[in-house]
Amino acid sequence: TGDYHREPRDKNYRLFDSLISPLHNMNYTRATYNIAMWIKDYVWHKLLKRPYKLSKVIDLGDGDETIVLVHGLASKSQIWLPLVELLDKSRYRIISYDLLGFGSSPKPESSSYSTKDHAKSIYHSIKKDIKTGQKVILVGHSMGCIISTYLAYNYEGLVKNLILYQPPLLLEESEKRSFHRKLYTYIARKPPLFLNYVKFVNRLFRNKLENLETATSNWTSIEKSIHNTILSQETIFELKNLSIPTDVVYGKMDFVVSRLDAKKLAGINKNIKLHYVYEMHDITKRSSKYLKALLERV
pLDDT tens digits for 82-99? Predict the structure, then answer.
């Protein structure tokens, strides 16, 4: 389903690795190793503000156009496989990274998992994988839409086209009583409820949500991402001011996100086109065919 490999690290990172690597081979206690790794994390990421290296799960195709797929909350890159299977590998290069805190990417306890944190890690990864000056087509799903919009708005010259599938847009901050804002806040405060719901749906619909991460060990990244990415988003403002072609796609049966804000945006920014598919909050074969058609128009 993709290429799994380690990316080359720069000289500074290799220096830190050289200081820590003896611990892998010597008879140190687990506590000592954890302390050493904490020091490495603190110096490199907290003090030097360097972004975390994400796990690149999908890297297929050798086409001239590069598509970067950004998954959503509590998910992983494999959720994109129905779309990846349909895309022409001779026309596109298709890349997807596991977001910070999810899948096989690092899960630092110290991260705030803000939109900026997620975006910096993706940007750092993308720039290593593309040629200088090259632009990408960015496709986001759910929370990945918030991160993708942030990238398109704040990193000028990176994105040529933006496709947002089921973005969890929220009303302006002044309208705090919106149903979905309350819903996301409630979910963040009730970890067992969310995890049990996902497990129940998986049993009921035969692993319908199999690409969602339900382990309690992932709750830190889930909770912080809800608070600091979804609930703290500035996505509506960013979309209003984007100057690149943007397609917003909603599922008619998707009750996880609100569609009210998108209707407003379509009339505010001429670069935004609004679409609907008969889907729930998931990436299926049917929705993948629709996304494929949008990508082929770019």
Answer: 999 999 999 999 999 999
Q: What's the pLDDT band for 78 if we cut at 50, 70, 90?
A: very high
- Return the biggest CA–CA distance within the chain: 64
Is residue 3 very low, low, confident or very high in pLDDT (cuts 50, 70, 90)? Answer: very low
Alpha-carbon distance 257 to 230, whole Å?
A: 11
Taking each helix axis as running N to C, give the angle between helix 30-41 and helix 11-20, from 0 to 180 degrees, rounded to the nearest 10. 160
Are 97 and 105 within 8 A, CB to CB? yes
Half-sphere exposure of 40 (CA within 13 A, CB side): 19
Q: Is 103 left (phi over 0), alpha (psi -120 to 50) or beta?
A: left
229-278 tens-digit pLDDT: 999 999 999 999 999 999 999 998 888 887 766 777 778 899 999 999 99
pTM, entire model: 0.82
* Residue 247 three-state SS: strand
Q: Which amino acid is at 271?
A: N
Strands 56-60 and 92-97: antiparallel
**Contact (Cβ atoms closer than 8 angstroms) between residue 226 and residue 251:** no
Among the listed residues 131, 147, 114, the one whose alpha carbon sits nearest the alpha carbon of residue 65: 131
Find, among 216, 195, 223, 215, the residue nearest to 112 by Cα. 223
Give the separation between CA 163 and CA 136, rounded to whole angstroms: 11
Beta pairing, strands 92-97 & 136-141? unpaired
Q: Which two tokens stand for residue 49?
A: 């503000």
